[in-house]
Amino acid sequence: MSIYVQNEHGTIEISSKAIATIVGAAVTENFGVVGMASRQQVRDGINEILNKENYTKGIVVRPEENNSFAVDVYIIVSYGVKISEVSYNVQERVTYRLSHSLGLVPNSVNVYVQSVWVSENS
Questions:
Q1: Is residue 30 part of a domain?
Q2: Lower Cβ count inside 10 Å, N or C end of the chain?
Q3: Helix 83-101 with 16-28: angle, nearest 10 deg
């Protein structure tokens, strides 16, 4: 899937993989986010934290009407953080990063917490 942006110079095609890479980088910068999780945990391995090369396994870019899109993000959070605050911060940062990097604003950013990571020191 691609998003097409029309301007005075022509058409720009932005792939969903490019959007997912930008979203993944924005998500992992948030306090309380341990990492990205696979959206299909049973198939890909439960509790697997995805690295930069695999962000697309934890992010879904869904096309919507009028060449707009929605983003689904699957994350693992740290034990002891307020999940609602972490989720809100993820939504805000993803929207900000996409609007400033690509000039695109998603219709929605849906955050799915797949797991809570408990460190050995806790």
A1: yes
A2: C
A3: 130
Q: Are strands 2-7 and 108-117 parallel, antiparallel or unpaired?
A: unpaired
Q: What SS3 class is residue 55?
A: helix
Task: Answer whether residue 122 is part of any domain.
Answer: no
Q: How far apart are CA 17 and CA 27, in angstroms?
A: 15
- Computed over its alpha carbons, how large is the radius of gyration of the chain? 15
Residue 27 lies in a domain: yes
- The CATH number covering residue 100 comes to 3.30.70.1350
DSSP letter at 32 equals T
CA distance 9 to 3: 16
33 is in which domain, residue-wise? 2-117
Q: Which residues contact 80 (CB under 8 A, 6 or more apart)?
A: 122
Could you list the pLDDT tens digit for every one of the 122 residues in the chain? 788 888 899 998 999 899 999 999 999 999 999 888 887 654 545 556 666 667 678 899 998 888 789 999 999 999 999 999 999 999 999 999 999 999 899 999 999 998 898 877 65
